[in-house]
Description:
With about 160 residues, this protein is of the alpha+beta class. Helices cover about 50% and strands about 25% of the residues.
Amino acid sequence: xxxxxNRRNVKQHAGIMTVELAVITPLLMLMMVGAAxxxxxxxxxxxxxxxSSTGALFGSGSTLKAATYDVxxxxxxxxxxxxxxxxxxxxxxxxxxxxxxxxxxxxxCVDATCDGYGFPRVYSRVEVGQTFEPYINWPGIPSxxxxxxxxxxxxx
Length: 156
C-alpha cells in the first residue's frame, strides 16, 4: 500500500512540473532575448567609443593630421567595421585657459594667441554615432536607441 501511494504521488508531481515548465518557458525566453538585446547595445557602445578614441588619437599626432578629416573618418569607420550605419564627425578646436575659442581649423588655431598665455591648446575631436535596433520594442526604452560617443585629444 505504501508503494502505490508513492507511485501516485510521483505521477502527480510529474504533471505539476510539466505545467510549471509550460508556464515559465515563455518568461525564460523573454528574459533570454532581453539579455541578448542588453548585451548587444553595450557591445555597440564599446565599439563606438573605441572608434571615437582611435580617430581622435590619430588626429592628435600633429596639426596636419588633425586637419585630415577624411583620413580620420576612414580610420574611425574601419575601427567600427562590425557595426552598420556609423556616422563619424571629426573636427578641431582650440582653447585658452579660462575660455574656448570655439571650433576652428588647425591653421587658425595655430595663428591665434591667448591673452598673456601664449599659443592656444589645439584638440582633435571625433564624434561617432550609430543607431541600435533592438530585437523587440521594450516598454520604456526608445526604439531605435541612439548610441554616440565623443572623444578629444590634445594635438602634440
